[in-house]
């Protein structure tokens, strides 16, 4: 698995925690920033990561901002992306099993680093169930055409 990860100024600390987790799990990744304290625009980080996931350069993408909302909205504008906004472990498992989400977003102002690591670990290690869920995901893919 190869993961692209990015944050805006509001998600730098959680991004660093998730990068450490990726290293611990032995998952290949590329960190797309940001490395600044000043305000930046989250679409400038969400779009490139989402495009790289959508075109197959990366298997999955992780985005972090203050709430996760802006990043997830921006990522979901990219055709082929199913980005889930996650702030609990149940949803992290369910979105992989049922929705085959290929990106996730979290909010640093919403959750702490320990929970963020747990969510990411579950999301990264959970497989898509397929079956009846595959038909639903395929309907989304067909609509995007």
TrEMBL record:
Keywords: Isomerase. The active site is at residues 65, 98. The keyword Kinase does not apply. It comes from the Bacteria. Its EC number is 5.3.1.6. One of its GO terms (biological process) is carbohydrate metabolic process. Transmembrane segments: none annotated. D-ribulose 5-phosphate binds at residues 8-9, 66-70, 99, 109, 132, 136. It is an enzyme of class 5 (isomerase). Gene3D superfamilies: Sugar-phosphate isomerase, RpiB/LacA/LacB. One of its GO terms (molecular function) is ribose-5-phosphate isomerase activity. NCBIfam families: PRK05571.1, rpiB, rpiB_lacA_lacB. Belongs to the LacAB/RpiB family. This is Ribose 5-phosphate isomerase B.
């Amino acid at each position: 698995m190869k993961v692209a990860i990015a944050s805006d100024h509001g998600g730098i600390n959680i991004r660093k925690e998730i990068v450490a987790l990726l290293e611990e799990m032995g998952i290949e990744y590329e960190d797309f920033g940001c490395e600044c304290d000043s305000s930046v625009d989250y679409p400038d980080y969400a779009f490139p990561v989402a495009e790289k996931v959508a075109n197959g350069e990366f298997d999955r993408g992780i985005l972090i901002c203050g709430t996760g909302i802006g990043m997830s909205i921006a990522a979901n504008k990219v055709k082929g992306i199913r980005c889930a906004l996650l702030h609990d472990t149940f949803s992290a498992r369910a979105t992989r099993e049922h929705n085959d989400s290929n990106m996730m977003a979290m909010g640093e102002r919403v959750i702490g680093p320990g929970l963020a690591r747990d969510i990411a670990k579950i999301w990264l290690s959970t497989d898509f169930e397929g079956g009846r869920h595959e038909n639903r995901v395929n309907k989304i893919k067909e609509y995007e055409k």
